[in-house]
Amino acid sequence: MSNELTPDEYGQTFATLQSTMDKFLDAARVEAVYGEPVAYEDHLIIPTAEVLSLVGFGMGSGSGTGPNPENPGAGMTGGEGAGGGGGGRVLSRPVAVIIAAPEGVRVEPVVDVTKIGLAALTAAGFMFGMWLRMMRPRV
């Protein structure tokens, strides 16, 4: 048994990688960032989002010989191996709304109060921890 890939297996592997990359790149298209415009009275409202696409791949192989763990005195055994894997994630969040009106165009940011609150609590926790550390008597 050989770890070498045949030309057909190379083609299948490349096609799988290409298909996966196409799906992740498709997530960053303009339609994913700018939503469908909505008309309301004499205003045109366009939602916008931030899209982050992360992907990673890894491959491994191996071979070699070693002692037979079941019978160490029997000699060497062969070894082979191969493996691969990958994964990814697409994250998106609303960031703003573009409003086109007869008076002009303006951008209204989308504020996530929960994230701001969690960031403030985290910062306060770090500051309290550092204050406690500074107040500890030195030996």
Task: Describe this structure as you would to a colleague.
With 139 residues, this protein is of the alpha+beta class. It is 34% helix and 43% strand. Strands 1-2-3-4 form a four-stranded antiparallel beta sheet, with helices on one face. The mean pLDDT is 81.
Structure summarized in a few sentences:
The protein has 139 residues and is α+β, with helices and mostly antiparallel strands. It has helices spanning 7-26, 30-33, 113-135; strands at residues 38-40, 43-67, 76-101, 104-109.
The coarse silhouette is flat
Overall mean pLDDT score? 81
Number of DSSP strand runs: 4
Describe the strand arrangement of the main beta sheet, using strand numbers.
Answer: 1-2-3-4
Note the main attributes of this structure:
flat; 4 strands; 4-stranded antiparallel beta sheet; alpha+beta; 139 residues
Topology overview:
Elements: H1 7-26, H2 30-33, E1 38-40, E2 43-67, E3 76-101, E4 104-109, H3 113-135
Antiparallel strand pairs: 1-2, 2-3, 3-4
